[in-house]
């Protein structure tokens, strides 16, 4: 049974009361979150913007993710444990932590958020909590897409679309760490950045048609869809895999004798702890486009929705 945190009853948060544009994001007073015996209550230092945020806000994701208004978005969090539930033994008040919190619950556009302890990890020690907030959703999506869905192994080739985006910047680094031959698509202005992250080949998608340049790729990691995905099927080796975060066409996969996999991320504190270790070892870094205060959340959404941001957009609380 859930119980309400008693030390305060009101916090500041950004909530939506209806679907719509960025103007439906309202900075206002909201009740403190409820948390259960297996939850931790986190005092939020920062969150970040992910495409799912504005897809939910606009109503585009309502079929697969129904919500009850008013609702708090934001599914990355870094901060400090304020209180641990009665069954939680791994975290205590004052611990610096981060998480990709459950998207079915109210999120981290707030001063406090309640998160299941199993979804929480100790934050990396070598970077700020603000930068740590950029890791969870994008980083674990990259990991899951490459290794859990794509079964990527050392020596294989992988093509990563949207390599300068939030997911893409992590995917390039993780694939290189795994010993893969990494090919990436991005725009001309981001070619040097993507190469610096470990890509062996970088294709300016505006200047070159990757589908005429590549063949026999083991894995395509697609976070773009549309025409980009259509042109990807023909470059995958027979029996290879296309993994997509935006949906993959099984008929196209069958026609090209390859596998198609789509997935939604499950929160995983243990996996996130592995990523924190890679950060502290200097093997994984967070690329930051811009930081906004929570009071300017509308501008942060507009920047993300424009589709040209590099790495992560951080929102400080």
Provide a descriptive summary of the structure in words:
The chain is α/β, with parallel strands linked by helices and 317 residues long. The chain is built from 10 helices and 17 strands. The strands form 4 sheets. Strands 5, 6, 7, 8, 9, 16 and 17 form a 7-stranded mixed sheet that branches. Strands 12-11-10-13-14-15 form a 6-stranded parallel sheet. Helix 4 links the parallel strand 10 and strand 11 (181-186). The longest helix has 14 residues, at 136-149.
**SSE order in H/E notation?**
EEEEEHEEEEHHEHEHEHEHEHEHEHE
Low-confidence parts lasting 5 or more residues at pLDDT below 50? 1-6
Shape: globular
Give the strand content.
Answer: 25-35%
In the CATH hierarchy, the architecture of the largest domain is Alpha-Beta Complex
Rg computed from alpha carbons, rounded to a whole number of angstroms: 20 Å
What is the tally of beta strands? 17
What is the CATH topology descriptor of the largest domain? Quinone Oxidoreductase, Chain A, domain 1
Distance between the termini: 29 Å
**Integer average pLDDT:** 96
Brief overview:
The protein has helices at residues 51-58, 129-132, 136-149, 166-177, 191-196, 210-213, 226-230, 250-255, 269-280, 297-305, and strands spanning 3-4, 10-15, 26-31, 34-35, 39-49, 77-84, 96-99, 112-116, 120-122, 157-160, 181-186, 201-204, 217-222, 236-244, 259-262, 288-293, 312-316.
């Amino acid at each position: 049974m859930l119980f309400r945190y008693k030390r305060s009853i009101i916090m500041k948060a950004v909530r939506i009361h209806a679907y719509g544009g960025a103007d439906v994001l309202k900075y206002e007073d909201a009740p403190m979150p409820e948390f259960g015996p297996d939850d931790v209550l986190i005092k939020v230092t920062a969150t970040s913007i992910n495409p799912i945020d504005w897809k939910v806000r606009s109503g585009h994701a309502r079929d697969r993710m129904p919500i009850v208004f008013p609702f708090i978005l934001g599914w990355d969090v870094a901060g400090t444990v304020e209180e641990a539930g009665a069954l939680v033994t791994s975290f205590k008040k004052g611990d610096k932590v981060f998480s990709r919190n459950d998207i079915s619950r109210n999120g981290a556009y707030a001063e406090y958020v309640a998160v299941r302890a199993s979804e929480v990890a100790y934050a990396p020690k070598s970077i700020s909590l603000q930068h740590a907030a950029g890791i969870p959703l994008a980083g674990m999506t990259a990991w899951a897409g490459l290794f859990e869905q794509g079964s990527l192994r050392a020596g294989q080739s992988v093509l990563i679309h949207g390599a300068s985006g939030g997911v893409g910047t992590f995917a390039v680094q993780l694939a290189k760490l795994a010993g893969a031959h990494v090919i990436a698509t991005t725009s001309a202005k981001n070619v040097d950045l993507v190469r610096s992250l470990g890509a062996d080949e970088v294709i300016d998608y505006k200047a070159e048609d990757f589908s005429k340049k590549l063949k026999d790729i083991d894995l395509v990691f697609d976070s773009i869809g549309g025409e980009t995905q259509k042109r990807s099927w023909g470059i995958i080796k027979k029996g290879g895999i296309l993994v997509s975060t935006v949906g993959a066409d099984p008929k196209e996969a069958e026609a090209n004798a390859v596998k198609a996999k789509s997935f939604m991320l499950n929160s995983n504190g243990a996996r996130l702890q592995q990523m924190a270790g890679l950060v502290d070892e200097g093997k994984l870094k967070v690329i930051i486009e811009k930081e906004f205060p929570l009071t300017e959340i509308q501008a942060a959404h507009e920047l993300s929705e424009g589709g040209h941001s590099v790495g992560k957009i951080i929102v400080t609380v």
